[in-house]
Amino acid sequence: MTTATRAMPTRSDLVQVSQHLWEIPCSFRDDMRAPARLYADEVLLDDALGDRSMEQLVNTATLPGVTKYAIAMPDIHQGYGFPIGGVVATRLPGGIISPGGVGYDINCGVRLLASEASVQEVSPFLAELASLLYRNCPSGVGVRGEIKLQDAELDKVLVEGARWTEEHGYARIEDLRHTEEFGTMRGADPDYVSHKARERGRGQIGTLGAGNHFIEVDCIAEIFDETAAKCLGLFSDQAVVQIHCGSRGFGHQVCEDYVARFQTTVHDYGIELPDRELVCAPFESEEGQQYFHAMACAANFAFANRQVLAHRIRQSFEQALAGKVPGFDLHQVYDIAHNMAKIEEHEVSGTHMRLCVHRKGATRAFGPGSPGLPEDLRDIGQPVLIPGSMGTESYVLIGTHGSMQQTFGSTCHGAGRVWSRTRARKTVRGQQLRQELESRGIAVRTRSMPGLAEEAPQAYKDVSRVVDVVARAGIGKRVARLEPIAVIKG
Amino acid sequence: MRGIAIQHFQEIEHAADWAFRAHGCDLAQLFANAARGMFELQVGAGSAETNVARGVAVSGVDRETLLVNWLNELLYLQETQHEAYSRFEILEISDTHLQARVHGRPYRPEGKLIKAVTFHDLMVRQSEDGWEATIVVDV
Is residue A158 part of a domain? Predict the structure, then answer.
């Protein structure tokens, strides 16, 4: 295993497969086990070639068991090990599972809640609503919430996920129906979670965290698909809320524990890797299974976390709007994960195959009729929630037959960074950015001005361009566009 | 603590996360400066005043793993004890084991903090000028 710098793919190494699909064939590097494919238009292709993300994508194409292609979404950007915006499916039995292919923020994801009120009705109370959301939903890295769990109760959260929150009054039964995996990732076993992970996570249920995590109140600015929008309870000018966060310190520690452990495991299985952060183990091996059990615990932690935050958001809406705005109550549209490894069946070259699908900065996007969808959504396909960068538009999509055929039922997850955090911090002043957003009628609440600057819209790709590529490539269908009216940044 | 190199760390541009390079005249100073760099990136140059001290012992299969485990242990302490550290006494160090005493102060995070230290592009090497390490962190 080495970390030696390898040849970076350039434009001339790419073969155009179709208008928005590019391929780096196996001939590019001897250690590739499958081609690497990128969904992009010309502009996003240049962005992808502008950092090391394509080299990182090629690295993932060397993993044992990789099936069909290592895939990059148009929002791809450089990460550590796997690129952000990557999908790698390994065939079972025999294929690997990689903690780095899921990332530190296991089950980082997005939830969308929708009111029955219009933005015009909510706007007069927006400042108070934003302040209540900020106060009721604790943010910051090490911050703790109001729920403190002893080991036995924490174990229940780790096994049951959002179902635990329903039993404790934080969720409605219909919330679970509209959550990926119905809010409970199977296979969780707390025996494989370290004491440290427990210590980090114990007080963090119901907290937002920091970085690019946020709560955002949005307006449905445009409907593209009336039938799907109606099915999801979405209408023009509606006030809705997005939550973006994950498994907090608990998930970080689970990933850390297994990336460190797999540094030796990988040698035991004779796996050669181009990057130590790609360490992995055969899925069926003892070590692979142990990671999967622990990862599922972190996934459940994240489902419970977003659910408790949803509860706090409902309370905030009630406090700010009850008696003033009749339709203040929020129903859950859907909740998706964009950092996860899942065991799924997909058709590969005419055969049904069992696969371990790693999505790192990519969203599951199951098409109409897919198993795993609740009955009321089965005809339209799975809702996919694509947050834009701060202050810009976001999208609701649905999965398609095309995503099932081309990308193991996956699509993009957001805008994708183009500027480093350092460059954003040096170029953008947090206070000025806040004023700009507020002059556009967007209420901003944050703990950190430098943190705000790092998430400036200029630091990201154009999310509409990203969504346009997935729509044109047929791996996602637009339902609605959202415009922000209040941002609560972690 | 041993003498401090003039430039103990430098930030390196990274598209999405943070990366930095630490220097030291020997392995002990390299590890101390890497820790200093990590905390300065998060909370700025620490005040000289410290009022908490903690013992830390970590091991790893090689120097690189030891460095990652050391820095991740400090992140764990930072998050669970709500402290930031600014002085790092390396009491004992080999390629696979480290014992240290770290000094800091209570700290409530205001801004962006590091989630984890990664193995991506990780490098620990001895050069003509001493030791250097390259570290990429997830934020």
Answer: no
Alpha-helix residue ranges (DSSP H) falling in A40-150: 42-49, 53-60, 119-122, 126-136
Contacts of A171 (CB under 8 A, 6+ apart): A162, A165, A183, A307, A310, A311
Nearest CA in chain B to A448: B111
pLDDT in tens, A401-441: 999 999 999 999 998 888 888 888 889 998 999 999 999 99
| Structural domain includes residue B56 | yes
Asked if residue B8 belongs to a domain, the reply is no
Question: For position A389, which CATH number holds?
Answer: 3.90.1860.10
Question: H or E element: which one contains A200?
Answer: helix A195-201
Whether residues A422 and B80 touch (CB distance < 8 A) is answered with: no
pLDDT for residue A140: 64
Instruction: Tell me the residues of chain A between 185 and 204 that have a Cβ less than 8 Å away from chain B.
Output: 196, 199-200
Q: Is residue A315 part of a domain?
A: yes
Q: Which residue of A has its CA nearest to B84?
A: A142
Let me know if residue A179 belongs to a domain: no
Q: How far is B4 from chain A (nearest CA, A)?
A: 25
What does pTM read for this prediction?
Answer: 0.96
Q: Does A348 touch chain B (CB under 8 A)?
A: no
Which is it for the CA torsion B57, B63, B65, B69, positive or negative?
positive
Cβ–Cβ gap A263/B65 under 8 Å: yes
Query: Annotated catalytic, A252?
Result: no
Give the pLDDT score at A1: 45
- Per residue in A227-282, pLDDT (tens digit) is 999 999 999 999 999 999 999 999 999 999 999 999 999 999 999 999 999 999 99
Nearest residue of A to residue B69 by CA position? A260
Interface predicted TM-score (ipTM) of this complex, two decimals = 0.92
Chain A residues touching residue B80 (CB < 8 angstroms): 142, 199-200, 249
Q: Does A378 touch chain B (CB under 8 A)?
A: no
Per the CB < 8 A criterion, the answer to whether B134 and B110 are in contact is no
The domain in which residue A41 lies consists of: 14-141+206-246+303-418+460-489
* CATH code for the domain in which residue B114 is found: 3.55.10.10
- Total domains in chain A come to 1
Triad A264, A265, A267: Cα angle to 5°: 70
With beta carbons under 8 A apart, name residues in chain A contacting B11.
Answer: 422
